[in-house]
Structures are given as structure tokens and as C-alpha cells.
Amino acid sequence: MQPRDSIRVASVPSGHVYIRHLDPLPGTAQGIPGVVRLPDPDPDSPDNPATGKWWPPVMLSAEWIDANAESFDVFHIHFGFDALDPRDLQEVVTALRRHGKPLIYTVHDLRNPHHESPAAHDAHLNVLIPGADALITLTEGAAAEIERRWGRRPHVIAHPHVVELDTMADYARRPRATGAPYRVGVHVKSLRASMEPLPVIRALLEVAREDGGMVVQVNGHCDVLQPDGARYDAELAQFLDREAGSAELELHVHDFLPDDQLWEYLAGLDLSVLPYRFGTHSGWLEACRDLGTAVAAPDCGFYADQGPVFSYSHSEDGLDAESLKAAVRAARHAGPPRPLEPRVRAEQRAGIASRHAELYAGLLQRSGVLQ
Asked: Which residues form the Glycosyltransferase subfamily 4-like N-terminal domain (predicted)?
């Protein structure tokens, strides 16, 4: 066995905000094993680290593992395997076994939000969940579903903050607007298969017209809402264009928002409605929690396990519009939630980092790599 100053993790990916926030804040890592995550190789030049682009993940191949096995101690898959054939994914698992490298898989999604059918993602899960040496997921509900379907109980480790802590502190100091209409947001961005925003927006407009003091703000990307867009949704775009002249709907069409503009937009909402008909977990929900924006979330996933939300019924069978209206009224009656304190998120992050480091170290100790 070899003592080692730090554990080298081949993380797929490494540069995503969720993975970055699995690491401890400076000065808070005393008493836990050090963790170093390999940078994402550049997909266009795999011998060089990426400078922000990580997809498609170069590490997800048996060839990369065979060539780089001496550079990492454990392999941790989060996401990015959507386009892989399950047989290629099995070759990744087999290559890791060949080199004696533990595999950890964090089950973020039990249903891929980009796929109309669950079949392709299920085929991936049927490789990764039985093949991993350890499993992590974000909520108790997802853990129970994994245990029911595959007979394995994952470690449950919560989602860390999404917004940077100093930015959270800045927004927490800002006074919330008073006297303005109650602002309910629906973000249609680049439409995923999991999203069905039109029935949700129709129901929200009904509430706004009954209420008289509420506005529905819809933000969408140009590729969905402009006729020359690659994912143009004519029915949704034409409905929004017709309604945008009313007092109840405010439409914003734009391209991808950088983080500072995205946080400004989310913080300006009283309630953000997730228009999903299937799903599992949500980083968007976590960003809203960081900024003190209430969330209305469907009951089709495990969103309510992540944190306080106003639940409504929405699934592939359709939307229960009355439940959504009730959720909006309940959110308005409850008033604005307090944003999570940066101190609380920092303490949570320290715990998350510790649990990951201890899990890595435990796997390596069992394999005889670490003392």
C-alpha cells in the first residue's frame, strides 16, 4: 500500500458547476483526504485540458482509460454519456476493472430530460448502476427508487449550492421590491423533451387574470421562439406572441444568459415554475433556493425532496391545472422565502466535500491502494 497526499479523481465531467462545488472551500478541508480532480480533456485536442468545453467527455472510453490509468485513482461518472452506446459504456466499466480502478456513479437522473422515451437512459443505467463500486444520489426518494429497481442502496448526498457564495451574500443584502405585481416565471429556454410549458403558461395566465396583481414572465431562447431557430416551436411561439400584448404576460426572448444575468433574472421573480412532465432532480431549483426565489415544482420527480417547494401535479399523463393554480396561490400567500444563508451553504458544502473524500478513500483502502 502506498500513502498518498491526495486522491486523484477522473471526474466526468470536471468543469461543471455541480462538480466544482463538491470540492471544499479554501481552508475548510482539515481532517479529510485531499481530492484533486483531473481537468476535462479538450474534445478537440484530447491531449490538452479543456478550457470550458467538456462535451463529449473524452474520458468516457476504454482507450482513454487504458492510456491514462496511471494518472488517476478513482473514476467518478456524473453525466455526459447520453450519446454512448451501452456496449461502449460497458467497455468503460470493464477497462476500469482491468486496471483495478474503483467506479463511482452519481445518479442525477433516473429519466433523461432530453429523451422522449426512457429506454435509452434505462439501458445506460443498467450498465452503470450494477457496475459501479459505489452509488450516490441526491435525495432519499431517488435512493428508494434505485433500491427498488436495482436492489442497491446509494449514498444520499445533497446538491450543493449553485450560485457562488459571495454572490448569494450580495443578493441577500438587497431589499426585495415592494408594491410591484407578483411575478411568476416560466423558463422555456431550449426546450427539453421533459418540458411541456404551454399548458402551464395557460393555467398561470388564468390565475393572473383572476388575481389582477400578478404577471407571468416567460423567458425563452431564440432557437425555440424565433421562426429561424433550430428548435422553433410554432404553437408555443405564436401563443406567446399573441398574449404578449396583454397585461398579464411579459415575454423575453434571448440567447443563453451568462450567470450574472441569469441570477439577476431569477432574483427578480417571486416564484419560478418548473414546467416538467418528467424528471428527477433540478439544479435550477437549487439556484432559486440560493437567491430566495420560491419554486413551484411538479410531483413527477424528487424535487420536493431537494428542498421546500410548492408542489403541483404534472406528468406524462398531463397537467392538473387546478393543482398548479393552488400552488401559485399558496406561494403568494406564504410570502417570499428567506434565501439560504451563505454560511449554511458553506457548511453544507464542507459536509458534501467530506463525504465524497471519505467515500473515495474507503474504496481505495478496500482495494489496497491507500493505507
From this structure: 21-158
Site of grid cell 387574470: 209
CA-CA distance, 152 to 154, in Å (whole number)?
A: 6
- Say yes or no: 18 and 56 in one domain: yes
Element (H, E) at 49: strand 45-49
Q: What is the reported pLDDT for 53?
A: 61
pLDDT of residue 355: 96
Residue 228 lies in a domain: yes
Residue 260: other Cβ atoms inside 10 A: 9
**42-46, 53-57, 309-313: which is most confident:** 309-313
CATH of the domain at 227: 3.40.50.2000
**100 backbone φψ class: left, alpha, beta (φ>0; ψ -120 to 50):** left
Give yes or no for residue 51 having a pLDDT over 60.
Answer: no
CA distance 268 to 52: 28
The pTM score is 0.94
Q: In the chain, how many domains are there?
A: 2
Q: What is the pLDDT of residue 64?
A: 97
Answer yes or no: is 341 within a domain.
no
In-domain check, residue 340: no
- Does the pLDDT at position 201 exceed 80? yes
Does residue 175 have a cis bond before it (omega within 30 degrees)? no
Q: In terms of residue numbers, what domain contains 108? A: 6-160+347-367
Number of Cβ within 10 Å of residue 180's Cβ equals 11
